[in-house]
């Protein structure tokens, strides 16, 4: 059984298109490496950047090891707090990806639910959801995310800001990005609703929620995958931007954006490596996700074949 | 046309009321204003007196109505952080952001449109391909990384341009401008380049795509058949139709520029509204956040509405569609 599935996968159009496109292959290879680095960060890192007892202040502001004054123990150099940059980037990548995936999951769950409800029920429910979506869409994502972030900070007591930061970020980014899913799912739901299999299910006495979840949902999920991929790049970028602006992950638990912010503060003392290396990792990550998303969109679009 | 106008304006008013509702909810449910106004030892009666004086004992919709009335007059109360009127704070910061956004918007048009035309007219040429590639990078780079790179190269290594602040500003009435001094102009260069880069690539790509589309249409073929010179075909006939969608996107993106100015202002320590907003977000300063939200939304709504109307004026087909849709 598994064997035939595997062969069918190898024969599929998608796989053929994947082998033909070198951008898809390169970007997925890059992503595989980055995901691996994030998952195995505790084993790949040479020190735990969260553990202050492992930091030696004498080793602060060391340049990368291939530059004069560098120390082979610190491959990419250290920052002002003597944090090993290589380890900090691994852990930061991990945080950025966790926030990215979690907020995409939140946005997708929210968007799919609201899209299904709107498309299936129609009427005032649909109108209300789509009005909110329209208003949300007319504002830049970063502004909405900042606002949700600010409200969460206002509600939470200040001493909990650092601990809650990751949840606040996931919430802020997730609440910002659900509109695209909702619009797409709503559109396909309205088409599916008219089809005969839905009428058949209705005649058989399947309840509204049963039809939505068991029958319509599987048929509208295709485009969601593409949106989710492209959205991951956006989510990672939004997280980095918020952290860079100082309202994201705190300096004690730096994500890639926080590392760039810390590096930016010391740009003028000539310590360029603290800002450059996390930026490179961030740009490569976002670029790879975007290129893969572009490829997926084209490959799944039958009009382009 | 009049019906379209009225519908559009009513829609805008609803959006503004919704935004005001969000702002109002922030005020109402984030922290109890009474706590910050009375002494910690105040009795329940004293608290109730303050509550009554502030009108907090009245039904929510009455409070909302009063909030909207005050907001319409620009009154958002005092900042929780530095106890100054929010409207004064915003008015002080507004010129810095406005000048930055205007210069960036101007740059993106002045550079983006010619580059778009160039790449559309000579699609295979080396310069066009280079531009396409560079624009791809421009879209992929996070804006704050671009800003940091600009500072690293032009301020730290070359030491040509300042990396923070507005330079020397001149006050004209309540408006402080950086346009009139050399240091003010120099300080504008890096931030406006950073801010305009994304929009510039967007406009360039849009103009290119539209121009190539228009050049394939029949009326351009007729113009060529009539033997009109290339210059006249490209710039008098083709460009006019190319620019209609550019106006829409530009208008919509102008709002985006104001939002992205938040990032630019943080990178370059530019004393604008965005920097103020970020401080408010990190301190949970509700009055400043609410006022910024309402002000920026107002700017957005005004821009979006005028773009829609302008579009209807420029493109007769849309007027016909709108008329048909109304029936």
Automatic annotation (TrEMBL), chain B:
Which GO terms of the cellular component aspect does the record hold? plasma membrane
Membrane topology term: Multi-pass membrane protein
| UniProt-listed SUPFAM superfamilies | MetI-like
Q: Does Transmembrane helix count among this protein's keywords?
A: yes
The record's principal subcellular location, in a coarse class, is membrane
The answer to keyword Oxidoreductase applying to this record is no
Matching PROSITE patterns, A to Z? ABC_TM1
Query: In which family does this protein belong, per the annotation?
Result: Belongs to the binding-protein-dependent transport system permease family.
> What name does this protein carry?
ABC transporter permease
Its ancestry begins with:
Bacteria, Pseudomonadati, Pseudomonadota, Alphaproteobacteria, Rhodobacterales
């Amino acid at each position: 059984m598994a064997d035939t599935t595997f062969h069918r996968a190898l024969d599929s159009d998608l796989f053929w298109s994947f082998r033909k496109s070198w951008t898809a292959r390169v970007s997925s290879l890059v992503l595989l490496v980055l995901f691996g680095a994030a998952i195995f960060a505790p084993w790949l890192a040479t020190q735990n950047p969260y553990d202050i007892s492992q930091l030696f202040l004498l080793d602060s502001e060391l340049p990368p090891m291939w530059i004069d004054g560098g120390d082979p123990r610190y491959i990419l150099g250290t920052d002002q707090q003597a944090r090993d940059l290589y380890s900090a980037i691994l852990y930061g990548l991990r945080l950025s990806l966790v926030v990215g995936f979690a907020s995409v999951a939140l946005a997708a769950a929210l968007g799919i639910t609201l899209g299904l409800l709107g498309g299936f029920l129609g009427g005032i429910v649909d109108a209300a959801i789509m009005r909110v979506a329209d208003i949300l869409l007319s504002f830049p994502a970063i502004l909405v995310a900042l606002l949700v972030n600010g409200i969460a900070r206002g509600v939470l007591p200040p001493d909990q800001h650092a601990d809650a930061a990751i949840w606040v970020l996931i919430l802020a980014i997730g609440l910002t990005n659900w509109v695209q899913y909702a619009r797409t799912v709503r559109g396909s739901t309205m088409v599916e609703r008219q089809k005969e299999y839905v009428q058949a299910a209705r005649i058989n006495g399947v309840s509204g929620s049963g039809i939505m979840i068991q029958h319509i949902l599987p048929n509208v999920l295709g485009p969601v995958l593409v949106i989710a991929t492209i959205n991951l790049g956006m989510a990672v970028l939004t997280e980095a931007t918020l952290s860079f602006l100082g309202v994201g992950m705190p300096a004690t638990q730096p994500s890639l954006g926080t590392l760039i912010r810390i590096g930016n503060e010391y740009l003028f003392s000539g310590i360029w490596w603290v800002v450059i290396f996390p930026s490179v990792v961030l740009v490569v990550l976002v670029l790879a996700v975007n290129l893969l998303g572009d490829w997926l969109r084209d490959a799944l679009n039958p009009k382009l074949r | 046309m009049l019906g379209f106008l009225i519908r559009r304006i009513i829609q805008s008013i609803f959006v503004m009321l919704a935004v005001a509702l969000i702002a109002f909810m922030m005020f109402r449910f984030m922290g109890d204003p009474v706590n910050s106004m009375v002494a910690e030892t105040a009795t329940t009666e004293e608290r109730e007196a303050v509550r009554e004086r502030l009108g907090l004992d009245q039904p929510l919709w009455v409070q909302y109505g009063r909030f909207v009335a005050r907001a319409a007059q620009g009154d958002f109360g005092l900042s929780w952080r530095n106890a100054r009127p929010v409207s004064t704070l915003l008015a002080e910061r507004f010129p810095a952001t406005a000048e930055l956004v205007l210069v960036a918007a101007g740059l993106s048009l002045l550079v983006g449109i010619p580059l778009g035309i160039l790449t559309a007219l000579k699609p295979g040429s080396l310069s066009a391909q280079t531009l396409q590639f560079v624009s791809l990078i421009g879209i992929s780079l996070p804006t704050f990384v671009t800003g940091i790179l600009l500072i690293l190269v032009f301020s730290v290594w070359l030491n040509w341009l300042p990396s923070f602040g507005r330079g020397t500003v001149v006050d004209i009435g309540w408006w402080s401008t950086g346009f009139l001094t050399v240091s003010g102009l120099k300080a504008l260069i890096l931030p406006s380049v950073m801010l305009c880069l994304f929009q510039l690539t967007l406009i360039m790509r849009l103009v290119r795509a539209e121009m190539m589309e228009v050049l394939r249409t029949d009326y351009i073929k007729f113009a060529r058949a009539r033997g009109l010179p290339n210059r006249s075909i490209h710039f008098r006939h083709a460009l006019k139709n190319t620019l209609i969608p550019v106006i829409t996107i530009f208008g919509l993106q102008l709002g985006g520029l104001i939002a992205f100015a938040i990032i630019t202002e943080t990178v370059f320590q530019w004393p604008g509204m965005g920097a103020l907003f970020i401080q408010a977000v990190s301190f949970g300063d509700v009055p400043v956040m609410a006022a910024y939200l309402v002000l920026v939304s107002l700017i957005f709504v005004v821009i979006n509405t005028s773009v829609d109307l302008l579009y209807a004026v420029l493109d007769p087909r849309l007027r016909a569609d709108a008329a048909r849709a109304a029936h």
